[in-house]
Amino acid sequence: MLKILIPTLMLIPTAWGAPAKWLWPTTLAHSLVIALISLTWLKNMSETGWSSLGLYMATDPLSTPLLVLTCWLLPLMILASQNHTALEPLNRQRMYITLLTSLQFFLILAFSATEVIMFYVMFEATLIPTLIIITRWGNQTERLNAGIYFLFYTLAGSLPLLVALLLLQNSTGTLSLLTLQFSDPLQLTSYADKLWWAGCLLAFLVKMPLYGVHLWLPKAHVEAPVAGSMILAAVLLKLGGYGMMRMIVMLDPLTKDLSYPFIIFALWGVIMTGSICLRQTDLKSLIAYSSVSHMGLVVGGILIQTPWGFSGALILMIAHGLTSSALFCLANTNYERTHSRTMLLARGLQMVLPLMTAWWFIASLANLALPPLPNLMGELMIITSLFNWSWWTLALTGAGTLITASYSLYMFLMTQRGPIPAHMIALEPTHSREHLLMALHLLPLVLLMLKPELIWGWAYC
Amino acid sequence: MADYREAPLASRPKTLDPNEYFNLSPNHRRSEEDRAALRANLKRQYQTQLNNPHRKELVEDPALTRWVYARANPYLTFKPTFKTSLMGAMFGVVPLFVLYYVFKTDRDRKEEQIKAGTLERKFSLSS
């Protein structure tokens, strides 16, 4: 574990000490080496499930895919941010890379934490660099509003979690994940225990986000710069999913009755946010609402607590992380050329940037869950386990799949096909850096088709 | 005014069309000419920007900016009327209760079948 953490920490002196011409290539190479070393975590060596076991940190098949995704994303964020920070003074560029690195550091600690309070502290700590990135480097005045919504929604959800965790520590004596799964089932009979149950899960539901409390997500994703959008969509949402999957082990048997409203919100949210996507005029807002839609399926998969549901949730989280980040990078290539997110203004791009169309096509196909990409496999596992839970969910999930396909197609046709508007002359040709960025997003997705056991979580041991 | 000739790409404006303007009052004619002058000025500004060979960005359209702002901030212009309340209830409140009822009765029925031992598990992975 330290062989990843210390290089990540050392990326901060690299960012501040590198000479100006070599800042971005150096940090890119450094973070790429960290990402490649993190791939060694994927080999699950031990029988107990927990590998790289230390006193406070460990990895198990649930957290390893998310850790590798986090480490993989840092070089991609650095690649994506090179253009829009090029006009800023050097020290501000160094600060930007430092913020991204500190976010990475907190995320690695969060996913590998063995003590739930450490996970909670890191969960909260990731809010601060993200808030700074959104409010300082966002492009419109709405970024202040977005930062406030983001911070206060998540904080309001996680304060009950702190109280619930302290209560749990009182009653079980430990909060170490290594042993908490094997402790006696808790006596959860009084009404206050129901509130405790809600307190445990609310923070993660707000983070996922669940449909009723999702309002912070479109604002934060749209107003953040590209690296902020990437890390938000790809990893920070999955913090909520990961937290839920860890906590829900201790919350039986209350979950059988109390989870109904949340499953209903999640499934109805899949349809509602998918329909909103069809009416969006802002490209990044469309991708943000599609994130809410996919995460609604993940929430449904987790709350029914079946092995297939958990596996499907983890697979969909990883696949969606890569796909959503790829789509935000594509939206950023549009934004850097036209400085506008309105879809009407940047259409018919196939005539102007045909190679980028190929990436748009693959990313849109991944978003609408084309087989044999892992997006479909995760969705299919969740849909079948929901069907097993109750036949009627098929109406909602089936309609959700249809709406997902239609808005992905809408997004592709709107940005790529059709006549190119007369006002768009002299668009910059596509940089090799942008092609590399898209390839590095979609290559892991394609490779995961060949060895999907890596992201099956606990179902593969 | 009477010598105005039609340009190859622009038709004669209505205020200068002799077939149209002899029965209009001079005030009306003057105001129409002023409006035509304003429009022509705006058109000239737009054409200058559009045909500038060194332009790399989009031509800014203030109407589009206002429209995008309105689309991004719907709560400023939201008014609770009968129709909007009905939409909110039909799509946001009623389905939640309907779905709760549907899922709860279905799951309770399944739970009773499990307790009675009559649940038929038709799908088997291993045989």
TrEMBL record, chain A:
Catalysed reaction equations from the record: a ubiquinone + NADH + 5 H(+)(in) = a ubiquinol + NAD(+) + 4 H(+)(out)
Signal peptide: 1-17
GO process terms (BP): ATP synthesis coupled electron transport; electron transport coupled proton transport
Keywords linked to the UniProt accession: Electron transport, Membrane, Mitochondrion, NAD, Respiratory chain, Signal, Translocase, Transmembrane, Transmembrane helix, Transport, Ubiquinone
Residue span(s) of domain NADH:quinone oxidoreductase/Mrp antiporter transmembrane: 113-403
Family: Belongs to the complex I subunit 4 family.
NCBIfam families named among the record's database cross-references: NDH_I_M (TIGR01972)
Protein name as it appears in the record: NADH-ubiquinone oxidoreductase chain 4
TrEMBL record, chain B:
Primary localization class, coarse: mitochondrion
Keywords: Electron transport, Membrane, Mitochondrion, Mitochondrion inner membrane, Respiratory chain, Transmembrane, Transmembrane helix, Transport
Disordered, as annotated region: 1-34
Keyword Electron transport recorded: yes
Pfam families: NDUF_B4 (PF07225)
Membrane protein topology class: Single-pass membrane protein
Cited InterPro entries: NADH_UbQ_OxRdtase_NDUFB4_su
Location in the cell: Mitochondrion inner membrane
One CC-aspect GO term: mitochondrial inner membrane
Transmembrane stretches, start-end: 84-103
Keyword Translocase: no
Family in the record: Belongs to the complex I NDUFB4 subunit family.
Subunit organization: Complex I is composed of 45 different subunits.
Protein's job: Accessory subunit of the mitochondrial membrane respiratory chain NADH dehydrogenase (Complex I), that is believed not to be involved in catalysis. Complex I functions in the transfer of electrons from NADH to the respiratory chain. The immediate electron acceptor for the enzyme is believed to be ubiquinone.
Designated name of the protein: NADH dehydrogenase [ubiquinone] 1 beta subcomplex subunit 4
